[in-house]
Write a structure and sequence with these properties.
Strand content: under 5%
Order of helices and strands: HHHEHHHHEHHHHHH
CATH architecture: Up-down Bundle
Number of helices: 13
Number of strands: 2
Mean pLDDT: 82
Largest sheet: 2 strands, antiparallel
CATH topology: Rhomboid-like fold
Distance between the termini: 61 Å
Shape: globular
CATH class: Mainly Alpha
Low-confidence stretches: none
CATH superfamily: Rhomboid-like
Strand order of the largest sheet: 1-2
Length: about 270
């Protein structure tokens, strides 16, 4: 398996200097586990698993729209709904992510994960999702990247790689039907993975061609357009009792909450 990956890496990138090892994958794994332990603590202490997900960075429409907490388009990817959700995503990350990281290298791999999470979050927002958590957007980005690599290298004939891909795809299809998981978020991640895959696998002799720059432009345009559309989408679907209680948890944990934010919420809810 290791020999196959080395040959594939050199075939695609002509680069023998790519550092091996699942550094980024293991880092993401550790962050997700730490965040989940934090969720368990906050959920137990304050009696609400939903509030715990929001407190630790889950995408929550009301906070994004009213408080402009756009950082949630990234942090939601490291928050998970329950232990099953976490285990399924972490299994997919280890099974698929470590293999792809050894092919494209740490930096390219991290870029795919982060941009796929962001794009998935933006598309989930535009689909009027209210609460979204999970790394699935990033994993679908990896699936998109893998599809391009597989097509360019014609290596689905390898039983180990084919089996790894099918297991991960099956798990992520199951995850799509779990609560607080957005299908739109998966599609957004998949699109970014496909676009970056086309950029990464461009042959060296085409790196200065107009086609190469068009691929980069298309990827940037996709993210910029979705970002603008998401910022302009300011509709509030519904208010919930936890809109204020989450802010109270922040206060209790020693995270300063501006009184002006409280006033905004009171005005919206009162209106």
């Amino acid at each position: 398996m290791e020999t196959v990956l080395k040959r594939l890496r050199y075939y695609l990138f002509r680069d023998k200097s790519i550092k091996e090892g699942p550094v980024v994958s293991l880092g993401i794994l550790c962050v997700c586990i730490i965040v989940f332990l934090g969720q368990l603590f906050i959920g137990y202490k304050y009696g609400s698993e939903t509030n715990a997900m929001i407190v630790l960075g889950g995408y929550y429409r009301n906070y994004v729209v009213i408080l402009n907490q756009y950082w949630r388009f990234i942090t939601y990817g490291f928050v998970h709904g329950d232990i099953i959700h976490l285990l399924m995503n972490m299994y997919a990350l280890v099974n698929l992510g470590t293999m792809i990281e050894n092919i494209v290298g740490h930096k390219k791999y991290a870029l795919v994960i982060i941009l796929s999470i962001i794009d998935g979050g933006l598309l989930a927002h535009l689909s009027s999702s209210e609460l979204v958590v999970g790394l699935s957007g990033g994993l679908y980005g990896l699936i998109g990247l893998l599809c391009v690599i597989a097509y360019k290298a014609n290596w689905f004939s390898n039983p180990q790689i084919r089996a790894s891909f099918m297991r991960t795809l099956f798990i992520n299809l199951l995850i799509s039907f779990m609560p607080s998981v957005s299908m739109a978020g998966h599609i957004g991640g998949l699109i970014v993975g496909l676009l970056l895959g086309l950029i990464y696998t461009t042959p060296l002799h085409e790196k200065k061609s107009i086609y190469y720059y068009n691929k980069i432009f298309a990827t940037c345009l996709c993210i910029v357009v979705l970002s603008v559309m998401a910022i302009r989408d300011s509709k509030i679907i519904k208010f919930y009792s936890n809109d204020i209680s989450v802010l109270e948890i922040y206060d209790d944990l020693g995270i300063n909450v501006d009184s002006y934010i409280q006033k905004i919420y009171n005005e919206y809810i009162g209106g």
